[in-house]
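thread from #wetlab-drylab

HS: before we spend reagent money on co-crystallization trials with iron/sulfur cluster, can we at least see a predicted complex? here's what I'd submit
DV: go for it
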Amino acid sequence: MSPSPTERLNAIVEQGLCIGCGLCEALAPQSITVRKTTTGFEVPVVIGELHDTTVDRIYDVCPGTRVEGLPDRLVADDTVVDAVWGPVRRIVRAWAGDPDVRHIGSTGGVLTALAQFLVASGRVEFVLHVKASTTEPSFGEPTMSFTEAEVLAGAGSRYGPTATLRTINDALDHDQPFAFIGKPCDLAALRNHARHDDRVDELVRYWLTPVCGGFGEPGFTDGFIRSVGIEPDEVTALRYRGYGCPGPTRIEAGDQVEERHYLDYWGDDDSSWGLPWRCKICPDGIGEVADIAVSDTWPGGSPTREESETDLGVNAAIARTVAGQELLAAAEAAGALTIERDVTVDDMSDYQPHQVRKKHTAGLRHEAMANAGRIRPQTARLRIDELAATVPVDIRTSQIEGTRTRIETGKASLPTPE
Ligand SMILES: Cc1cc2nc3c(=O)[nH]c(=O)nc-3n(C[C@H](O)[C@H](O)[C@H](O)COP(=O)(O)OP(=O)(O)OC[C@H]3O[C@@H](n4cnc5c(N)ncnc54)[C@H](O)[C@@H]3O)c2cc1C
Ligand code: SF4
Ligand code: SF4
């Protein structure tokens, strides 16, 4: 018997592919709500009648089932397309022109500075991005910022579940030009959605993203909160980073305030990161469909405790499109951005070794998922199969075997959403 529409939707969650972006709720609000379940993740829960046509649409736009690179029409002829780093027109080291924005921002405040410039210059009416959740302090939630102050209130990285696209209809219904800041998978989902809703390409004037190694599994974050002597349900505010680079992870429970180093949360290298399965097989953590993708610049991918004391915050910003390149120059001319110097894809690989590894191994992990009879995310223009073909045989074998073992031992699965 073929699976029901609900079973097909649940399969995305059960196979660990749902990132909780919220887009499926926006597509079918009468049938689906994206909410926190017993696993701690925000995932779709079926609340009304669901049809196969709706689930077909979801499979076509969900970033768990489809991830594509920049549409060809946005890759100008003179754009360099690097095998690992994708479309690149310019890469700079930069920070926010305003020292307060630089300090408050996650790294050097570049995303906030660009978004503030877009609002202040009237290029867009508002920015759709995220801020700390008002109900789940370790989560993020979408917000529409119309002023520079509102944009700044959303600064900082949220490493908890964040349904960035849950309110995309509100943003589109506004019928005003806007900028979108989301994780690379959020952007992938919205680019997918653009094939079905013409308003996306008409209204979303700028696409901005952090380079993204993944967010923290709820259990990982809860364990960290307990380690500082606070129960997760006592938390009243949580800031993962910002107010320095990376700045302290700050947990508040009423009057009790605990601050720890970023490395206390994440650990000393990427092997200790408690990431959702979808992040471990991510074919695009580097924001290939953005106009500008913005990252940290710590050599080797992690800060040191000593240098964090004095680090004022320096981002790398990759302009991928003509619009992104123009925006960098205009924001610098207006003083919103300070550009230190141009850098290269080799510098990016030094700052982001985990992204280079993941880009090479994602295709192998997808192959092992397909071999196990699982959903294989449809990908295009991300070069992951070409990169996988360059991986030495021993690593290739260990990646495929490791993925198979994870699947067989349930480490790549979540329970059916309830
Ligand atoms: C989950 C996650 C993983 C990351 N992994 C890496 C990595 O591997 N390598 C690396 O170099 N950098 C990574 N970063 C990016 C880094 O933490 C900074 O966000 C980036 O350097 C931009 O810094 P900034 O100072 O310009 O950001 P800010 O000026 O502070 O602006 C950050 C913007 O991002 C938005 N935002 C924050 N969290 C989320 C979220 N969860 N979902 C959607 N939008 C969000 C905010 O609304 C804000 O507009 C990650 C960020 C996130 C959120
Ligand atoms: S990733 Fe987004 S669209 Fe896909 S199932 Fe999860 S919430 Fe829905
Ligand atoms: S690693 Fe990939 S799937 Fe995970 S949050 Fe980042 S962009 Fe999304």
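DV: Residues 12, 18-24, 34, 44, 58, 62-64 surround iron/sulfur cluster (ligand 2) (CB under 6 Å).
HS: ok that's useful, forwarding to the group
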